[in-house]
Write a structure and sequence with these properties.
Blueprint lengths: L5 H9 L6 H13 L8 H15 L3 E5 L5 H7 L7 E6 L5 H9 L7 E5 L2 H4 L8 E6 L6 H8 L3 E10 L14 H14 L4 E6 L5 E6 L1
Parallel strand pairs: 1-2, 1-4, 2-3, 4-5
Antiparallel strand pairs: 5-7, 6-7
Length: 212
């Protein structure tokens, strides 16, 4: 999943904030117990998400795709005192693990976990607006999720979409269905006049979008 050379990534890991102990535990448990553990955000990307959240100081965060909760916790680190992160996971079998992971942290009470399809859950959320949205779920619906949330993000708020470099395939010769889908997403966002945007070459690529 890493785009950058291994030695460069190790250098970056060593020159950012250390990975909190509870996130180290979640990282290990994910690799021991869960299929496709590479979907985990990991140390460096986790610190990037935490940093962005702390800069925004959000009152309300929406996350689409919880997995084992690593990124959820990183994002929650930037919440205001009474802030809440709504996180949506489609796989109910992860509930016990997620509950245990959140209990390890100081942000457990700020996390509201939902199970089901995001397209059904997001419209029913009572929040008027979100300050930050993180999209890291089924990639075929990335643009649908963007359209689902854009009107509920406050001006100046962020939408972050993961995996937009797609293992480097988007700027290579590959032309498979998944790669074309990610290219199309990046292209649609790049010409959207309602937002400012940039792709950060962090892990598998983070598309950071600021609503005007």
């Amino acid at each position: 999943m890493e785009i950058l050379p291994h030695d460069l990534q190790e250098y970056l890991d060593g020159h950012c904030e250390p990975e909190p102990e509870w996130l180290q535990t979640i990282n290990r448990e994910t690799y021991l117990k869960v299929l496709k553990p590479h979907m985990l955000s990991g140390h460096y990307q986790g610190r990037v998400l935490s940093f962005l959240s702390k800069m925004v100081q959000p009152r309300r965060i929406l996350e689409i795709g919880t997995f084992t909760g690593y990124a959820t916790i990183c994002l929650a680190e930037g919440l205001t005192e009474n802030g809440i992160i709504h996180t949506i996971e489609v796989n109910r079998e992860l509930e016990e693990m997620l509950t245990a992971h959140f209990k390890l942290t100081s942000v457990e009470k700020k996390i509201k976990l939902h199970f089901g399809e995001a397209v059904n859950i997001v419209p029913d959320l009572q929040e008027d607006s979100f300050d930050l949205v993180f999209i890291d779920a089924d990639k075929k619906n990335n643009f649908n999720y963007f359209e689902l949330v854009i009107d509920r993000v406050r001006p100046g708020g962020l939408i972050i979409i993961d995996n937009v470099l797609w293992k480097g395939k988007v700027y290579g010769p590959e032309n498979d269905t998944d790669t074309k889908m990610i290219r199309e997403l990046n292209g649609q966002i790049s010409v959207n006049k309602r937002v400012e945007k940039m792709i950060l070459p962090v892990r598998d690529g983070l598309l950071v979008i600021r609503k005007k």
